[in-house]
Each structure stands twice: as C-alpha cells, then as structure tokens.
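Bit of a strange request maybe. I'm writing a small parser for structure token strings and I need a real example to test against, not something I typed by hand. Could someone generate the tokens for this chain?
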Amino acid sequence: MVVGILIRPGQVLMCHRRADRDWYPDVWDFPGGHLEPGETAEEALVREAREELGVHLVGPLTEQAAWRSDDGEEDITFLLVERWHGQPANLAPEEHDAIRWVTVEEALALRLPDPAYPHLLRSLPVGTYPAPG
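Reply from user aminoacidic:
Good idea to test on real output. This should exercise your parser:
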C-alpha cells in the first residue's frame, strides 16, 4: 500500500474512512491505496490521488515513513506530497465520507488508524505558522 501525506502551510489533508469499510473503518487517514501489478509506490499514489481527490501530484514525492500494518498483512509506504495541481475533492465517497484540511494538533485529536500516527504527524514539515484563511 501507499498513502500520500498532502501538506500545505500549517495543515495536512485527512480523509475519514466510512464506518462500513472492512479495513480500518471510521478513522481519519491519509489518501492512498494498493499498488497495481508493476506499479511503483509513486506511480500508484499519483493514480490514487487522481481517482480519490481529483488532483495531479507534482514530484518529487519523498518517503516520510514505511511500516507493516498491525496484522502484518500490508507494507505501507507514506509519501510526503508538497505540490499538486487542482483542489482536493472527495471523488471516492464509497471509501471516504469526508475530507478536510487540519492542523497537526487537530489531527492528533481525531480517531486515527494506528498508534504510530501521532509520531508521524508530529514529524511533518507543516510549519508552526497559522493555516491559510
């Protein structure tokens, strides 16, 4: 799996996974998905961002973290995304029932999919300046 951590000054984009999802239901997570055969993590994330958010990612995409899921079934790569074209929108309502920009502090108060997320969120280079209006 690959997920994208889209950041802008003071904020990170989070997606709320629908409560009826089989895998990590009713949590706030980053957008992303599974790699198709032959895809690199970066190629898969570019595709997933287009499908789920309607944005075109602009590289380079930097690996922020990588780990194995709690059940040991999935290897997950987290790519930092600082540039894209378009405005993120929820184009995958069957997966997410909401998306929103939040500060790291706001993200830490959300229900997250893994106990490692707080450390990951605190390590993001979003800056400490106020979020845009």
